[in-house]
């Protein structure tokens, strides 16, 4: 799971440390694509491949996904994906499109026309577990319809903003017509009414190539299981709003 990239020509314009943690340089991303290619790993290339690879075992397959819809998904990531012959899934927050630092409708269309898979990341990026049933439905229905109207193709895939999801939200998503749901960490996935909730590995800017390679092989993030469990527990105990506030405060004092 990626977010934004950056280069001298296309700075990310991010300011918060919590956001910067997930922004990679253009060179770092290309080196990761080179590693994937050099190791001979198979990268899923379209929606059918995403489905087929769920039942495959014994070999390494990689799904490349991007959250939010930052403009560097188009200006930096897209050319590199095309260079190496890879496809990715872009989960966009539709309410952010055409705004400062985010892709335009035209950019999204170009990605889709090139065979990239487009999914939703909600309409406003609000954490769905904080919302009422009606609010969740509006987030998922509005973003789905927006993309379908712009691209003229069905949208069946979404990633939960902040990775926040529970069985209630998942059932609403299934009812809205989503057949694939992604979260933001590599927790064991689960299924609701036959629809998979898929874990992902969030790629951070401080991972070196060995850590990146190890995460592909093990299917786990470089952080220890203890750290991952502690963070998950903190989210549950503090609630989304308090957790985000304390997290950003802590990162300000981290060197």
- Percent helix: 40-55%
Task: Label the structural class.
Answer: alpha/beta
| Count of helical regions | 10
Q: Major sheet: size, sense and barrel closure? A: 4 strands, mixed
β-strand amount: 5-15%
Output the strand order for the largest sheet.
Answer: 8-9-11-10
Shape: globular
- SSE sequence, one letter per element: EHEHEHEEHEHEHEHEEEHHH
CA(first)-CA(last) distance: 24 Å
| Average pLDDT taken over every residue | 86
Rg of Cα set: 17 Å
Count of extended strands: 11
- Unreliable spans are 53-58
What would your notes on this structure say?
This protein is α/β, with parallel strands linked by helices and 255 residues long. The strands form four sheets. It has a four-stranded mixed beta sheet with strand order 8-9-11-10, with helices on one face. Strands 5-6-7 form a three-stranded parallel beta sheet. Strands 1-2 form a two-stranded parallel ribbon. Helix 6 crosses helix 7. The two termini are 24 Å apart. About 2% of the residues have low confidence.
Q: Key terms for this structure?
A:
single chain, 255 residues, four-stranded mixed β-sheet, three-stranded parallel β-sheet, 11 strands
Give me the secondary-structure topology:
Blueprint (H helix, E strand, L loop, with lengths): L4 E2 L10 H4 L3 E2 H14 L2 E2 L3 H6 L8 E2 L2 E4 L3 H13 L4 E4 L12 H9 L3 E4 L12 H19 L5 E3 L7 H9 L4 E3 L7 E3 L2 E4 L10 H10 L6 H14 L1 H13 L3
Helix pairs in contact: 2-4, 6-7, 9-10
């Amino acid at each position: 799971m990626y977010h934004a990239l950056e280069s001298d020509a296309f700075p990310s314009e991010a300011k918060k440390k919590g956001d910067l943690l997930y922004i990679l340089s253009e060179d770092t991303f290309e080196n990761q694509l080179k590693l994937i290619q050099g190791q001979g790993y198979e990268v899923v290339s379209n929606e059918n491949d995403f489905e087929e690879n769920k039942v495959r075992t014994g070999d390494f397959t990689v799904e490349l996904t991007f959250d939010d819809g930052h403009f560097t998904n188009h200006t930096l990531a897209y050319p590199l994906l095309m260079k190496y012959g890879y496809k990715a899934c872009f989960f966009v927050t539709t309410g952010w499109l055409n705004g400062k630092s985010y892709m335009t409708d035209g950019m999204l269309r170009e990605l889709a026309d090139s065979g990239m898979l487009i999914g939703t990341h909600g309409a406003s990026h609000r954490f769905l577990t904080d919302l009422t049933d009606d609010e969740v439905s509006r987030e998922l229905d509005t973003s789905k319809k927006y993309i379908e109207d712009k691209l003229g193709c069905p949208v069946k895939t979404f990633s939960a903003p902040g990775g926040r999801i529970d069985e209630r939200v998942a059932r609403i998503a299934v009812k809205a017509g989503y057949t694939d749901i992604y979260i933001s960490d590599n927790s064991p996935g689960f299924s609701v009414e036959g629809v998979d909730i898929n874990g992902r590995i969030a790629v951070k800017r401080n991972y070196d190539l060995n850590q990146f390679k190890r995460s592909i092989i093990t299917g786990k993030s470089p952080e220890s299981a203890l750290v991952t469990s502690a963070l998950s527990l903190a989210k549950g105990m503090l609630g989304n709003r308090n957790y985000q506030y304390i997290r950003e405060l802590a990162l300000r004092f981290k060197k």
